[in-house]
Amino acid sequence: MRVNPHRAQRQNSDRPGSLKLTPLVQLLPVIIIIIIIIIIIIIIIIIIIIIIIIIIIIIIIIIIIIITIIIIIIILLTTLSVYIQIDACLRRLSSSTVERDIMIWNNKKYAGKPVFAKSTEDSLIARHRRWYSQFYSENSPKLKFQKDDLEF
């Protein structure tokens, strides 16, 4: 007896308990592979986004460091210019102070008996005057100076 293969197949599928393969079930391995590929692509995209975020954070940190260095340099330069101005003022003051002192030294007069208060400080001044009197005379040399007033 000769069996028709199409008919045998139909007979097997007509039996109760036999599985009929639907087109969806036949495509199930392909669908699973596509889902796995999509998940892998999503994971790769997430990793790329994380790397981009890390790079952006590093760039922001570098910018903050550069701005901080620039601010420190500006502060140092400003402070340096202030110190230069202070130094110039002190030099002018000290030179004018010395000039005024020279004028005072040139015009000093000896007072034989100055009036002192009865204090420890004034007694020290009187003792210093007695010691210093050994170096003073009317013929002491005078320094030459162009100003004759005490104006600043």
Automatic annotation (TrEMBL):
GO MF annotations in UniProt: oxidoreductase activity
Gene Ontology BP terms: cholesterol metabolic process
Keywords: Membrane, Oxidoreductase, Transmembrane, Transmembrane helix
One Pfam family in the UniProt entry: KshA_C
InterPro entries, A to Z: KshA-like_C
Keyword Secreted part of the UniProt annotation: no
Gene3D superfamilies: Naphthalene 1,2-dioxygenase Alpha Subunit, Chain A, domain 1 (3.90.380.10)
Record field: transmembrane: 21-54, 60-84
Domain 3-ketosteroid-9-alpha-monooxygenase oxygenase component-like C-terminal as annotated: residue spans: 94-136
Full protein name: 3-ketosteroid-9-alpha-monooxygenase oxygenase component-like C-terminal domain-containing protein
Organism: Dreissena polymorpha (Zebra mussel)
